[in-house]
Design a protein that fits this description.
Blueprint: H1 2-10, H2 12-32, H3 34-40, H4 47-56, H5 62-74, H6 78-102, H7 107-110, H8 134-149, H9 156-172, H10 178-209
Helix pairs in contact: 2-3, 2-9, 2-10, 4-9, 5-6, 6-8, 6-10, 8-9, 8-10, 9-10
Length: about 210
């Protein structure tokens, strides 16, 4: 348990920043509601912004996490690569289980025709797999592990900011609601911490036996 508390202390700026983001988002969601919070967060769309967020949202794609995993393998950072892969697989599994359990409509299914004008053709998805956001789960798990791996903790805010930006891209592109992103982010951060802690615990156990 001491190892876990020291983990939070060493990365306090990342976790404090995440807690701030999560609580502000949660208060906003509870105050405004599901539909209104989505509309408030999408007041303006423009072609260049559309292109930017379409590219940015790729950071939450599984292929990006696999790319980072392969880079870590190439750099011979095997423990970090394994942690990233396990966290990605476990978080993706949890996200898919929740999607199937709740089967909640995506914004394009939720809103009546003409109620929201910024859905993007051939980009915005339909269907009932809105909750939670899989991209948010993946990118927050990745950002958390990169922050934990990082020796220069000044970089941690950049990792968090990148994850938040990807989370927002899911709302901007009309793929998810704020609640989907918040739950996905919490899931990603929590599972990444658990995976990292278990790897540390296993490493110290093996070291003690050596």
């Amino acid at each position: 348990m001491n190892k876990l508390s020291s983990l939070f202390v060493a990365n306090r700026y990342f976790f404090a920043g995440f807690l701030f983001f999560f609580l502000v988002g949660l208060v906003f969601l509870l105050t405004e509601g599901k539909a209104a919070s989505f509309l408030y967060l999408n007041p303006y769309h423009q072609t260049r912004l559309d292109s930017f967020f379409i590219c940015l949202t790729f950071l939450g794609d599984g292929l990006f996490s696999i790319t980072v995993f392969l880079i870590l393998l190439f750099l011979r950072r095997y423990s970090q690569a394994c942690q990233l892969l396990v966290a990605f697989l476990v978080s993706a599994l949890f996200a898919q289980i929740l999607k199937n359990l709740f089967s909640m409509p995506r914004p394009k299914e939720f809103f009546a025709p003409g109620q929201y004008a910024y859905f993007i053709n051939e980009v915005t998805h339909t269907g009932f797999s809105s909750f939670p956001s899989g991209h948010s789960t993946s990118v927050f798990a990745l950002a958390t592990l990169l922050a934990l791996f990082e020796k220069n903790k000044n970089w941690n805010i950049l990792y968090l900011f990148g994850a938040v930006a990807v989370g927002y891209s899911r709302i901007y592109l009309g793929q998810h609601f704020l609640g989907d992103v918040l739950v996905g982010s919490f899931l990603g951060v929590s599972l990444a911490v658990v995976v990292h802690w278990l790897f540390l615990k296993k490493f110290h156990s093996l070291k003690a036996l050596a």
